[in-house]
């Protein structure tokens, strides 16, 4: 028998984004349970939120089923719906990941950014980073 998910069995994830370098554009956030879809979040299992940029930004994902997820952020300063890059593929815009996962030679692994979601409300604080 399939179990129906009720509001009591879902979660809300509240995200606070800090260290934005300006208030231009938007912050694009995606939440995914799919290791193969992180950090691009192109599959239908991903949940996306877009909010105006500010000194700090708050956003939330509601109705999230319990499981293991990772969040990827983009400070899309020119609001062109993509991550702009400079020579050698360096990101020109800000980015961030859940658990404040570190970036080395590319984005962090899903495992580095993943966290467990249970019913109720949980919080993530993510610092925006810039390479240029």
UniProtKB/TrEMBL annotation:
InterPro entries listed in its UniProt record: DUF2141
Designated name of the protein: DUF2141 domain-containing protein
């Amino acid at each position: 028998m399939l179990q129906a998910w009720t509001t009591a069995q879902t979660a809300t994830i509240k995200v606070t984004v800090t260290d934005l370098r300006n208030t231009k554009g938007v912050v694009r956030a995606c939440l995914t349970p799919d290791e193969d879809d992180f950090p691009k979040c192109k599959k239908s299992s991903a949940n996306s939120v877009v909010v105006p940029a500010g000194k700090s930004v708050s956003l939330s994902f509601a109705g999230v089923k319990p499981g293991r997820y990772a969040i990827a952020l983009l400070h899309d300063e020119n609001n062109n719906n993509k991550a702009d890059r400079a020579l050698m593929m360096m990101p020109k815009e800000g980015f961030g990941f859940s658990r404040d996962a570190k970036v080395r030679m590319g984005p962090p692994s899903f495992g580095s950014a993943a966290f467990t979601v249970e019913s109720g409300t949980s919080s993530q604080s993510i610092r925006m980073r810039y390479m240029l």
